[in-house]
Amino acid sequence: MTEPVSAEAVTVVALLNCLVREVSGPAGNVVPDGPDWVIIQLEKSARSLRARLRRPMSNVSRGTFEPPFTGQVHLAEAPDPAGLSWRELLALLDEELAAITGASADHLPAQIEASHALIAQALSRPPQAEDGYLDLEQSLLTGHRNHPAPKARSGRPDEVRRYAPELGARFQLHQIAVRADLVREIRIPETALPDEVSAPEGYRLLPLHPWQYAILSRGEEFPAALADGRAIDLGPSGPLMRPTSSVRTVAADDREFVKLSLSVLITNCLRINPWHEVQAAVTLAGLLEPLRRNLATRFPGTVLLRETSGLTADLGPGLADQLGVIRREGLQGKLHPGVRAVPAAAFTEPLPHPALARLLQRITADRELLLDWWQRYLRQVVPPVLYAFARHGVVFEAHLQNVIVGLDGDGMPAQVVLRDLEGVKLVRERRAEDLAAMPERVRAHVGTPRERGWDRVAYCLLINHVGGMVAALADRSPAAEPALWEAVLDVLSGVEPFAELEGVLAGEPVPAKTNLLTRWRGSADRDSSYVPLYLPLLR
Predict the structure, then answer these.
(1) How far apart (Å, rounded) are the C-alpha atoms in residues 104 and 39?
(2) What is the rounded CA–CA span in Å between residue 418 and residue 409?
(3) How far is CA 188 from the centre of its chain?
(4) Torsion angle, CA of 350/411/128/111, rounded to 10 degrees?
(5) Rounded to whole angstroms, how far apart are CA atoms 225 and 360?
(6) What is the CA radius of gyration of the chain?
(7) CB 407 within 8 A of CB 339
(8) What are 496-531's pLDDT values in tens digits?
(9) pTM
């Protein structure tokens, strides 16, 4: 991004991206206006927007993919050099979407305002000199390019800031001791829960995110459990934890991640860990052990992080889901010597961590080096995810925040790490026996029809991840964009064929999740709709 990175521009661009992808693009209402501008027609409200581009936009004729907007937009019929603010743009979107959906989204402006405010504060934070893995996790300052409020979090503003990874949050977990007979636990064999703090006899330790502790303390059920002795408040203790980009997953070092319940709306979801989801994650860790070994052999360098244990406590009808904890393997011992871990999303930030900015500047300055780097990246990330779906009926949600890339000493992609088994699904038609052995709620959470499973694989891997990476690299090297997509085509063509992939290679569209419409309706992520999007693959 050559223009100054500002919260205003980031927010306007996100709204434009959503509008084009979900509304105007699929309707064929996006047309070029010379090399530097594009016209976006708002069909229902009979308005047109004129938005400026950083570089020529690929694939305009078949539904746009990732528009390289600068953040400058105005009404085509009433041009204004100052451009529309995000609030003015949202008002136009409200008029259009209200005509389409029959309802206005009164809740959305506050969410976008909260996202805008946090982005502005994050962008004002001085560049970080430290470049360890957790520093890179906390360098994601602007977030999802195709979400209207990528940094919105419900809750008290002071708590949002205090626990924001973008602002460098560090804190101890809040420990409670729960009567042992009220604890539910699941773990893979030979895994013990670490006890950094001693629990009173007859009690078990349960860590809470301090934000969650504050939220629950303002209710009735949790204080009642503390008052009658079902739980004992032990206070903050243990090492300083740092939240990763997901906000609720934390780590002190590379030995372990802890995924905590957080009764906070982030993007499209309330980020709690219901017990059936905790069970699903740990159950899948055991069930997928053969696939984990198979991937590591068939695709050397592929790592699948296991969810090793989970627990919660029955402290009241509404509390068990808000107390769930999942422990996940860390990166220690998972990467080859000399390989450093980088969250994939960190490559796509318009203002990346200085260490990644230097790498991106070096590789995008040399076209041959860029294409070599990108081909290696694709070969690490794409084949194992598609193989798991096609041959094993396993749906990995390999979007940018769920993937860690290992770079060798020269900065070249050498490994891939897949994480977050709670989001993994099993294709019902392929894994019926495994699903039948699960408790009913776990089975309902994990099982998916093949068609819906492909929606998730294709969107997360091809649209969110690969498409997001192409856009970020093309922003820095515009002339290389066709070659970047050609590399995608080459890698996809080399994957063992299956029906859905053959359709993509033949020019069929790929399903793209509708984050704007999902937020507009106030729907959960699992209820998101999809729109068709054409990858610019065909030569």
Answers:
(1) 24
(2) 21
(3) 26
(4) 40
(5) 52
(6) 23
(7) yes
(8) 999 999 999 999 999 999 999 999 988 877 788 899
(9) 0.95
